[in-house]
Amino acid sequence: xxxxxxxxxxxxxAFVVLLFALAAxxxxxxxxxxxxxxxxxxxxxxxxxxxxxxxxxxxCASCHGTSGQGSSDGPSLVGVGSAAVDFQVGTGRMPAQQPxxxxxxxxxxxxxxxxDQLAAYVASLGPGPSTPTKDQxxxxxxxxxxxxxxxxxxCAQCHTVSGKGGxxxxxxxxxxxxxxxxxxxxxxxxxxxxxxxxxxxxTMPQDTKADIIAYLQExxxxxxxxxxxxxxxxxxxxSEGLFAWVFGLGSLIAIATWxxxxxxxxxxx
Amino acid sequence: xxxxxGSHNDVSDNLPSEQHGGHGAEAARTxxxxxxxxxxxxxxxxxxxxxxxxxxxxxxxxxxxxxMLGTLGFIASYVIFPVGKIVYIFPVGHVSALNFSLGLTxxxxxFCIGAGAVHWARTLMSDEEIADERHRVDADDELRENVRQQxxxxxxxxxxxxxxxxxxxMFGAVSLVPLAGVxxxxxxxxxxxxxxxxxxxxxxxxxxxxxxxxxxxxxxxxVGSLTFGQPQGLEEADDDFQEQIAxxxxxxxxxxxxxxxxxxxxxxGHDGIVVFSKICTHVGCPISLYEQQTHHVLCPCHQSxxxxxxxxxxxxxxxxxxxPQLRISVNGEGNLxxxxxxxxxVGPAFWER
Lengths: 269, 353
Description:
heterodimer; A: mainly alpha; Cytochrome Bc1 Complex, Chain D, domain 2; two-stranded antiparallel ribbon; 12 helices; B: alpha+beta; Rieske Iron-sulfur Protein; 3 domains; 7-stranded antiparallel β-sheet; 4-stranded antiparallel β-sheet; 13 strands; disordered N terminus
């Protein structure tokens, strides 16, 4: 140590200390720097955003603006999140065919990979709800009865108690929920597409959304038990009443007429 | 009334005469308005052919037997099929085997009784046309005099006119009895007093989320969302839950402050969060068909439409009043609270409103 301390005023000492410091910093950086996988993920994400931006410029920018700021033909997409894109493009609602009271679901024209890239780009514009993962919307362990109660409180006013949808004002309508993928039901509740209000996690927690999806699957008539037979569209008393009046009463009148119209006399006149 | 003096047997004037062949034509020649009478009776095959009659008998008996089998089938399906067994039946779809077989067998049993009875009556029971003579409506003078005498005798023997005490107390008793029924009408009341004007909301009442039963915080409610709320402390197990929630149910939405056109609405809300009664002011349907872009709320019953961005003004339909708004604020714990009851009564209009 004596040797070392004797040389501490040596003209090269400062360089040696600097060398040690640099080596320590570099070593620490190498040890603590983010893992290379994360780095690759980042670049994959930025690649997706890059690809999404290209798709966006071709398919969406004419209405939503070149950077998602919106225009008179389409709302701003800043902060709508990837869930909204996954819903709107994944169900074929977007890109819209024509302006109107409501943009209906139609044939999906993007692949899921392209939708994910678009979603990545729109998500990068501002924080918003992200596309749910399967465990978020999986109705496997959900409470069907509670889901039914929640559905009747929050959803049935527009979508009707059987989920068949119904009319709103000015040509708008609540669509049928039959056969809709659970992911899209979840995203619709989360993001509130078009005129549907949203039901964010803060007021309708994630597990209750899964309950509602479980209820909808339970009443989806294809596989569900329907003790009474003929559902007549499950759209309520109008179709049921019409059926009873036309076919029920109609067949009674037809039978009575048939009985009375036939003579029993031997000599037919 | 001169014709009444005639004999009751003299009915040839208003009864169809029996006519055969050319007799009617002869009458028509003399009197153009003569009653042509009934056409000659035609026999059915069953009346003239014993074999056809036997066949009809077998059909009727067969229908009644089928009905018996239907009833036995009903009992058998009640025993056989477990509740909840679902089967697929072609045009009907997936149905409960029990319900379907019960309905089918009971329907068969009832239909066959009716069909058998109709077939029996039409083919085998007598179908001879019979004219039923109308009798005089009033009684003859002798009978009427007899009744009058009995009435007078009865009144005399009962002492109705003489024993005035009995008569008057009887009048009293008979006229008092209906009062019992009148008193029961009291149960239609009491008058609602000011119950229609008030709900469970009061100053400092915390708004809880109907979905989670937890207090709502302003940051929970985002623009474009729809939340249903109720006053804290109202539990579904409460005796008067239905009565109270029917008046106190509210919907909570958040608008961008610049979208609110009505100044009072903005003042009564908190940071764009506005709370309105969920009960339609037309006939009280729960109303929550909220369109988040137009801020319209539609009532499913009669299509009354309210604009939540303009003090819930009625913009379409039969409702006569805007939806009452609840004044809200935030308490020390950061929860949304009411600043008082609704200023206007919730729900349908009523007399004193």
